[in-house]
Amino acid sequence: MARSHRFSYRFSNRLLLLILLTFETAQRPTTADPNDEACLKNLRQSLEDPASNLRNWTNSVFSNPCSGFTSYLPGATCNNGRIYKLSLTNLSLRGTISPFLSNCTNLQSLDLSSNQISGVIPPEIQYLVNLAVLNLSSNHLSGEIPPQLALCAYLNVIDLHDNQFSGQIPQQLGLLARLSAFDVSNNKLSGQIPTYLSNRTGNFPRFNASSFVGNKGLYGYPLQEMMMKSKGLSVMAIVGIGLGSGVASLMISFTGVCLWLRFTEKKMIEEEGKISQSMPDY
Length: 282
Prior knowledge:
Layout: H1 2-27, H2 34-46, E1 47-48, H3 59-62, E2 66-67, E3 70-71, E4 76-79, E5 82-87, E6 94-95, E7 109-111, E8 118-119, E9 133-135, E10 140-143, E11 157-159, E12 164-167, E13 181-183, E14 188-192, H4 195-198, E15 200-201, E16 204-205, E17 217-219, H5 223-278
């Protein structure tokens, strides 16, 4: 009986100790992935925040930005303790995009749209191999679009409209099989639109003219088709104007001829009257 009592006592103590250890582990803050910490810290340093929208982006939070699926950073979303999504849109941010952003290797969505960010897209972005959405639209970004973006094989969305990108659209981007939304309108791009971005799917182009307009040096299908339609309308307008002016000219000419004939006829009658009066009677 005493032996059974001692066994029960020891079992209870061990169970209590196990519960306390489990509770302590659950309460203990998890440390951030060192790559995520470097990513967030350097991104914050590269961005200017005149409106203080990122005031909670501090080193103490970078060391522990996530708790499971909960994020302690405004604009960030976590997934299993890793930075999964960054959405810092319309925050009046300036500065540049840090190449250390590539350290957020679990990042699947990056949205820095509608700010005043300048500089280039760092080629290191190629290391974001899980990236599905890239929206850098409505900023002051310049330089060439890095062909390394094609190494982000899961990209579904590339939105770069309303920036100052120059050079050609990389041919490699046409190889992104999952790409369903693409917009580089209103930049300073030039050269021919890559074939694989303008291929037809059935009777429709993969991306229509609205994805490419606003780039003076850019040409090729589907912009070429839009220009042809525009030229066709212009030709029709010119022909219409020509026909209209021709008909008007013809009417004016016809009226002038009629007036001239009437005037001539009247004059002849008057002359005949004068002659008949001057002729002697026989």
